[in-house]
Design goal:
The complex is a heterodimer of chains A (268) and B (297). With 268 residues, chain A is mostly helical. Chain A has a domain of 157 residues: Enolase-like, domain 1 (2-Layer Sandwich). Helices cover 49% and strands 9% of the residues of chain A. Chain A has 12 helices and 5 strands. In chain A, the strands form 2 sheets. In chain A, strands 2-3-4 form a 3-stranded antiparallel sheet. In chain A, a hairpin with a 6-residue loop joins strand 3 and strand 4. The longest helix of chain A is centred in the N-terminal third of the chain and has 23 residues. Chain A is elongated, with a radius of gyration of 24 Å. In chain B, the strands form 3 sheets. In chain B, strands 1-2-3-4-7-8-9-12 form an 8-stranded parallel β-barrel, surrounded by 5 helices. By secondary structure, chain B is an alpha/beta fold. Helices cover 37% and strands 19% of the residues of chain B. In chain B, helix 1 runs parallel beside helix 2 and helix 4 packs across helix 5. Chain B has 9 helices and 12 strands. The chains are: A mainly alpha (268), B alpha/beta (297). Chains A and B meet through helix 1, helix 2 and helix 6 of A and helix 2, strand 5, strand 6, helix 4 and strand 11 of B.
Chain lengths: 268, 297
C-alpha cells in the first residue's frame, strides 16, 4: 500500500468521523487548527450530497421539514455511500431506505412519495418517448391485436400507491403556499409520470387506466389486459384511451419492426 | 416527439474556445440562455451533469452547442485517487466528448474517492514526488483514452499536509511538462488558497509559464469568520470580488489574453447578472494594451 493510498484512506476515515484521528499529525495548523480545517471538508462533503438528495426529493423534504430531511440524508449517505463520480444515481435507494427508516415509521406514505419523485428524476434523464404510428395497428386483425404486447415508453413510469399520492405530491409543490389537507384514507392513487417534451408531467390515472397500464407493463397481451379492465368496470371506454396512449408514446408495441426498443436517444 | 434531440444523426464539428469571456452553463439558466442568446464568447458545462446520455439536460446542452463553442469541465474523475481509474466514468466522458465535440476538456488537481467510495468533492493532494508520479500517470491514461490534451485546474484548498515537499505551482508545472497537459488557471482559487495558506498569489502566478495556460477561471468566494480565525471559502455563490479582478488584470499582463470563464454555482443570479460578470472580463481582455498582448505567449 502506497503512502498516498494510506493518506487517502486516513482522510476518508476522518471525513466519516467527527474528529481528527487518522490524519493526526499529517495536517498543518493554518489560520485555524488542523482539526477545524478538516471540518470544512467534512461539511462540504455532507452538504453537497444532501443537496443532491434535496434536488431529487423536494416534496419529501417539504413533508418532513428541513431538519428531519438533513437527519435522514445524513443516515442515507452513511448507509449508501456514493459509488460514483457523478451523482445521477446517488438517490436511487431512498424509497427502500425510508421504508426501513424507523424515525419515519409514523409516515408510511413517504416511501411512495420517494418512489414518485425518483420516477420524476429518471424520466428527466430518460430518452424521449416516440409517437406510434396507429395506422399500422389499425391494419392488424382483431386476433393479432389481442396478442400484441407493449412496454411503457422510455420517458414513462407508473407509480401505484395505497395512499392518495398524486394529491400529496400536488399539495406539496414549492409554489403551493397554503396546501389543503389531504386525507390519507381518501383512497389509493395511481400516477403516470411522463415527459411529453421537456417538462415532466404527472397524470393521475382512473382505476381502469391504471389497471390497463399495470397489466400491459407486466407483459400481458392487449386482449388479456382489456378483459381484466372490463371485468372490473364493464363500461370503461378503452379505445380512445389506448389511442391516446399510443399517440403520446406511453405504450410501445413490442415485436413490431418499426418500433423495436432502440438504444438511448438513437431516434432521428 | 421525434427529432427533439438536435444533431443526433449528424456529427457536430468541434469549435475552438475563443480568447474571450464565457460563462458556466447551469440548468436553471438554460431556457433564458436559449431565448436570449446573450453575447458571451463560449460556455462551459460540468461533464457529469450530462452523464445520463439522454433526456432534458443533454437536449439543452446540444441546443446551446448550436450557438456557442462549449468546453467540458469535469468534477468527478478523481484523477488523484489511488483507486483504479473508473473505466465507466471515463467511457461516459468519452461518449459525451463524442457528442458535444468540446473545444476544451478539463479536470482538477485533486482526488475524490478511495476504497470505491466517492466523496464527490475536490479533496487536496499532498504535493510529493509520489503523488506527482501518480497524478501524471493518470493524466496520461485519460489523455490516451480521450485522444486529446487535458486541462488541469488548480484547486482551492483549506488544508496542507506536513509532508508536502513541492509548491503547488511547481507541481502543476511538472504535470504539464511531463504529460503535455495544459493549465486551467483558476485565479480565484489561487487567491483563496494564498490567503488560507499564507503564500503570495503573485509568486504563484508569476511562476506559471504563459504558454502553459489554456484557460482562466474566475468566481466568487466568501470570507468566513470563525471564532478562532478566518478562512476564504470557495463557494461560487457571489460576484468575483475586486481583489480577484485586480489579480486577473495583472495576470493578463503576464500571460497575455486567455479564454476566461465566470463560474457561479450556488445562489445563482438571474442570467443577465452572470453575463455582466463576463462583460467585465471581456473588457479586461479588450483593454489589454497591445504591447502586453501575448508578450510571453
Amino acid at each position: 500500500m502506497s503512502a498516498l493510498n494510506r493518506l487517502q484512506r486516513a482522510f476518508a476515515e476522518d471525513l466519516w468521523g467527527a474528529e481528527l484521528r487518522h490524519l493526526q499529525g499529517l495536517i498543518m495548523d493554518g489560520r485555524l487548527p488542523a482539526a477545524r480545517l478538516l471540518q470544512i471538508y467534512r461539511n462540504n462533503f455532507s452538504i453537497s450530497l444532501e443537496e443532491a438528495l434535496e434536488a431529487d426529493y423536494p416534496v419529501l423534504k417539504r413533508l418532513v421539514g428541513t431538519e428531519f430531511f438533513q437527519f435522514l440524508a445524513d443516515h442515507y449517505l452513511r448507509a449508501h455511500p456514493s459509488r460514483c463520480g457523478d451523482l445521477l444515481q446517488f438517490g436511487d435507494r431512498m424509497p427502500a431506505f425510508i421504508a426501513g427508516f424507523k424515525p419515519a415509521a409514523g409516515l408510511p406514505y413517504l416511501t411512495d412519495v420517494a418512489r414518485l419523485e425518483w420516477a420524476c428524476h429518471e424520466v428527466v434523464h430518460a430518452p424521449d418517448n416516440k409517437t406510434i404510428d396507429i395506422q399500422t395497428l389499425a391494419l392488424m386483425s382483431p386476433g393479432a391485436l389481442a396478442q400484441l404486447r407493449f412496454r411503457l415508453g422510455p420517458a414513462c413510469r407508473l407509480v401505484d400507491s395505497i395512499f392518495p399520492i398524486y394529491h400529496i405530491w400536488q399539495c406539496n409543490q414549492a409554489e403551493v403556499e397554503d396546501p389543503q389537507t389531504v386525507h390519507l384514507n381518501s383512497g389509493a392513487e395511481s400516477v403516470l409520470v411522463i415527459r411529453p417534451q421537456l417538462r415532466v408531467q404527472l397524470w393521475s390515472l382512473q382505476p381502469g387506466a391504471s389497471l390497463l397500464l399495470q397489466q400491459l407493463s407486466r407483459g400481458a397481451p392487449l386482449g388479456h389486459a382489456v378483459e381484466q379492465v372490463l371485468a372490473s368496470d364493464p363500461r370503461f371506454d378503452l379505445q380512445p384511451l389506448v389511442s391516446h396512449y399510443l399517440a403520446a408514446g406511453v405504450l410501445v408495441p413490442l415485436n413490431s419492426k418499426s418500433d423495436r426498443p432502440s438504444p438511448a436517444g438513437a431516434q432521428s | 416527439m421525434n427529432g427533439l434531440m438536435p444533431n443526433q444523426s449528424t456529427a457536430v464539428s468541434s469549435r475552438a474556445i475563443p480568447t474571450e469571456a464565457g460563462i458556466g452553463l447551469r440548468g436553471p439558466h438554460m431556457e433564458a440562455l436559449l431565448q436570449s442568446l446573450p453575447a458571451v464568447g463560449w460556455l462551459e458545462a460540468h461533464s457529469e451533469n450530462y452523464f445520463g446520455g439522454s433526456g432534458v439536460p443533454l437536449y439543452y446542452l446540444l441546443r446551446a452547442r448550436e450557438h456557442y463553442p462549449v468546453s467540458l469541465h469535469g468534477v468527478g474523475l478523481s484523477l488523484g485517487s489511488t483507486d483504479p481509474l473508473c473505466r465507466s466514468h471515463l467511457a461516459r466522458l468519452r461518449d459525451l466528448v463524442d457528442q458535444v465535440q468540446p473545444g476544451l476538456v478539463s479536470e482538477h488537481l485533486s482526488w475524490g474517492s478511495v476504497s470505491d467510495i466517492h466523496f464527490n468533492d475536490l479533496l487536496p493532494l499532498p504535493y510529493t514526488e509520489e503523488a506527482l508520479d501518480h497524478f501524471c500517470l493518470r493524466v496520461h491514461q485519460v489523455q490516451e483514452a480521450l485522444g486529446r490534451t487535458l486541462l488541469i485546474e488548480n484547486p482551492s484548498s483549506y488544508l496542507r499536509y506536513r509532508h508536502s515537499t513541492i509548491a503547488e505551482w511547481e507541481f502543476l508545472n511538472a504535470i504539464c511538462q511531463r504529460t503535455g497537459a495544459l493549465l486551467l488557471l483558476d485565479i480565484n482559487n489561487v487567491f483563496v488558497s494564498a490567503f488560507n495558506h499564507g503564500f503570495d498569489a503573485q509568486t504563484y502566478l508569476r511562476a506559471i509559464p504563459a504558454t502553459q495556460v489554456a484557460e482562466i477561471h474566475l468566481a466568487g468566494h466568501s470570507l468566513k469568520q470563525f471564532e478562532d480565525g478566518a478562512l476564504r471559502i470557495d463557494d461560487h455563490a457571489s460576484p468575483v470580488c475586486e481583489d480577484v479582478w485586480a489579480l486577473y488584470r495583472q495576470s493578463l499582463q503576464w500571460l497575455g489574453p486567455k479564454p476566461t470563464l465566470i463560474e457561479w454555482d450556488a445562489e445563482l443570479p438571474p442570467l443577465p447578472e452572470l453575463v455582466d460578470q463576463a462583460r467585465i472580463a471581456q473588457d479586461c481582455l479588450d483593454n489589454l494594451s497591445p504591447p502586453d498582448r501575448g508578450i510571453r505567449s
